[in-house]
Specification:
This protein has 306 residues and is α/β, with parallel strands linked by helices. The chain has helices at residues 5-9, 25-39, 60-71, 127-137, 171-175, 196-207, 219-227, 284-289, 296-299, 302-305, and strands at residues 11-19, 42-48, 51-59, 81-85, 94-98, 113-114, 117-118, 123-125, 142-145, 155-157, 187-191, 212-216, 233-235, 237-238, 245-246, 268-270, 279-281. The strands form 6 sheets. It has a 5-stranded mixed β-sheet. A 4-stranded parallel β-sheet has the order 8-12-11-9. Strands 6-7 form a two-stranded antiparallel ribbon. Helix 2 (25-39) packs antiparallel against helix 3. The structure holds zinc ion (2 copies). One zinc ion binds next to helix 8. One zinc ion is lined by residues 271, 273, 276, 278, 294-295, 297-298.
Length: 306
Amino acid sequence: MGYSKTDYEESRILLYYGFAPLEDPQAVMFWQRTLCEMLELKGRILVSKHGINGTVGGSLAACKEYVRRTKAFPAFKGMEFKWSEGGAEDFPRLSVKVRDEIVAFGAPDELEVDDKGVIGGGVHLKPEQLHELMEERGDEVVFFDGRNAMEAQIGKFKDAVIPDVRTTHDFIKEIESGKYDDLKDKPVVTYCTGGIRCEILSSLMKKRGFKEVYQLDGGIVRYGEKFGDKGFWEGSLYVFDRRMHMEFSDDAKVIGRCVHCDQPTNDFRNCLNLQCRKQTLICDDCFNNGEKHYCEQCATQPAATA
Ligand SMILES: [Zn+2]
Ligand SMILES: [Zn+2]
């Protein structure tokens, strides 16, 4: 490997996904595991017959080599990688697994992919194309949050519809419920953290009669890089690592509210009831000084606070 000294001194995290038909997911899993072990990368990779979804961290040299070798596999040739700060130490271990789905919507047999990606998904909009659509269609456009409802408590697109979902598994039931039938003739823009959930969600929506569906390309992450807090995004972005949330600028609004005192806060904490563990917005004052360590439900049950 022709890498420089800094390539070995610095480290990074890679986030990526690719939808492509994989004839032998098991073989891809073994290849990926061996590759990561050789490069001393840690993280989590899921492989299915529809593609790959991963987050890995390690030295900059290892990350570069990983990208080069992964893209050498024809099915992953066009895959995009997001680079972020961090390294192997941000992950407890390496986990590479084969699953029915790389994102668990509970619809492995409905999803169809070809070498260009998901078949029948929403039209991809780059951040600037989203702004063009907003200029042309204005109030007609509806943002549809493709994440778990909890994530939207601290940040969302302006006036977004927040479906009542605890996990991605709940989406099909939700979009078939009839609650959103009035959106079927409107321009709907789905968005999620990095784009992968909307690849699937937008195709499921189109199959269920939503006629004009778009998906935000690269997700909130790429939109935030481009427009920060000066566009249609409001608040913080929920992230699935130690940081819990991130902001795009110092101007980020705090839209979350403490469940106990209604003060603005972005701090999710696990409910102390071990049977519950629900991630709950609790402000510093309530948590540290008021000893309020439970979610709103458990806090009212005497057994939990005993
Ligand atoms: Zn509070
Ligand atoms: Zn609880």
